[in-house]
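Narrative of accomplishments. A recurring question from our advisory board has been how the design workflow behaves on a single, concrete structure rather than in aggregate. To address it, we present the structure tokens for one chain from the evaluation set, followed by the sequence designed for it. No filtering or post-editing was applied between the two.
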């Protein structure tokens, strides 16, 4: 279980954390364990020897060590051959994730599957006690799985990091092999030496990465890469945060930390255009806190001095923003480390208890949680979430939603579903194509702006930069054959829409 949970962190920077990745990971591990159970039972009947079981566990340690050594090269190779890549021989996402999990986790999982039936056979004393023996061993193994699950999920991943966990598991398996059979000392010492050598080598490798400005960080929720790169638009050197394979989730110009470096975040300035009287603003998704920094540095664009509530589920992300992205905190910005959906439910309950006077409402809400097309939090795309957002806004409230999709063509299903969902709650919804307004079939950032008032919004501005954003307005067709339905808590297959499944 520790390896399976860690596997999601191993795959995330290269293949994401979508339902496709989890399906491949769980399915391959279950299949490999089943093969191991079958093979282990046959081996145990032919050669019920502790020595053989110890050697198989030692082989599992070596396979686990090989996983740590090969994961970077293999996943980079497969990532460049997914359907989103530029390879001449592209793989569908399902094919890439299946190949990755089979190669990385298959061998160790098969060998670990051998252990249970082999252990039952070795502990079997008589047919009369066979049921009790099997029951005790499977209860013990299940208890170990429970401890491993909670340890990995609540503590190990954020404390040790992905690679160190894998190396520790290899060491634990070497120790387990020694407990089963005390012989083969040279082989066990050699395996421990390999684990130590791998730890030193990979630590030196990480140190080299950090010296050139690349940081591989694990939080309690996700694996995060921070590195410097050149802005393709000529803006200079950027510092980038990424939690997935498809690009950046946050960015900052190194020489101008307060500027909005990522194009779609500049479109959030339309919040001040549509609601120049903003007093309270809600932002779901903190990331590198680039927009909160901008709002606090340019308050005149947003009503003078708005108060901003930022909901970020991951305290580790907030810490990274402070250390690497110059987020100093601000007295007018309250950070809530909570799931956005839970925050909305609580805020709605508090507002209803106080009859929601004007001082409790928001004028603007920004939804910045759909920054990856490999791992979209589906529960924040549903009609129930949109209704909760609407309930926290005043009568003229505005919601700005960033999504990644095409506006037309076969890759537009997520946009069409999200648009239908917001239209089911708000009387007016406008769309703006951020990267290439001339080609709505291109996969790109699309900004949805939902208005609680039915009054037509102002689509002109005396400011040239804002007018340029308003000119990217896209008017979708009212209805197309095969349009996806409104997203709900009961039905929201956003992964399938985005990955064209």
């Amino acid at each position: 279980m520790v390896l399976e949970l860690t596997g999601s962190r191993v795959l995330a920077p290269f293949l994401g954390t979508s339902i496709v990745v989890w399906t491949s990971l769980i399915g391959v591990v279950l299949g490999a364990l089943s093969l191991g159970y079958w093979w282990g039972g046959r081996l145990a009947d032919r050669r019920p020897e502790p020595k053989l079981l110890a050697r198989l566990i030692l082989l599992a340690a070596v396979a686990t060590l090989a996983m740590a050594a090969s994961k970077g090269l293999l996943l980079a190779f497969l990532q460049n051959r997914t359907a989103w890549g530029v390879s001449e021989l592209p793989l569908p996402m399902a094919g890439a994730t299946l190949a990755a999990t089979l190669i990385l986790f298959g061998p160790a999982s098969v060998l670990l599957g051998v252990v249970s039936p082999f252990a039952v056979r070795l502990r079997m004393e008589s047919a009369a006690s066979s049921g009790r023996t099997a029951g005790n061993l499977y209860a013990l193994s299940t208890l170990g799985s429970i401890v491993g699950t909670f340890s990995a999920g609540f503590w190990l991943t954020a404390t040790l990091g992905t690679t160190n966990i894998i190396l520790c598991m290899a060491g634990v398996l070497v120790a387990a092999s020694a407990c089963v059979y005390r012989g083969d000392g040279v082989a066990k010492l050699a395996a421990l030496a390999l684990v130590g050598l791998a730890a030193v080598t990979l630590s030196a490798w990480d140190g080299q990465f950090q010296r050139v400005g690349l940081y591989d960080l694990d939080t309690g929720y996700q694996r995060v890469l921070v590195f410097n790169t050149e802005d393709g638009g000529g803006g200079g050197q950027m510092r980038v945060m990424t939690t997935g394979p498809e690009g950046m989730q946050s960015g900052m110009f190194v020489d101008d930390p307060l500027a909005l470096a990522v194009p779609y975040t500049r479109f959030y300035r339309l919040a001040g255009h549509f609601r120049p009287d903003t007093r309270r603003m809600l932002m779901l998704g903190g990331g590198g806190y680039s927009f909160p920094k901008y709002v606090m540095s340019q308050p005149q664009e947003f009503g003078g001095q708005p108060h901003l509530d930022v909901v970020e589920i991951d305290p580790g992300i907030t810490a990274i923003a402070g250390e690497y992205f110059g987020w100093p905190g601000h007295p007018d910005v309250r950070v809530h480390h909570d799931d956005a959906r839970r925050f909305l439910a609580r805020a709605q309950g508090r507002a209803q208890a106080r009859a929601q006077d004007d001082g409790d409402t928001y004028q603007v809400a920004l939804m910045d949680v759909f920054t990856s097309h490999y791992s979209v939090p589906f529960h924040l795309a549903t009609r129930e979430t949109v209704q909760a957002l609407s309930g926290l806004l005043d009568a003229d409230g505005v919601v700005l939603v960033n999504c990644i999709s095409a506006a037309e063509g076969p890759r537009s299903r997520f946009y069409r579903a999200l648009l239908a969902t917001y239209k089911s709650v708000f009387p007016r919804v406008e769309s703006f194509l951020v990267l290439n307004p001339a080609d709505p079939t291109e996969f790109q950032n699309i900004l949805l702006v939902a208005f609680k008032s039915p009054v037509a919004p102002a689509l002109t501005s005396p400011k040239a930069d804002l007018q340029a954003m308003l000119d990217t307005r896209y008017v979708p067709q009212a209805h197309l054959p095969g349009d996806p339905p409104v997203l709900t808590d009961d039905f929201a297959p956003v992964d399938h829409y985005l990955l064209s499944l």
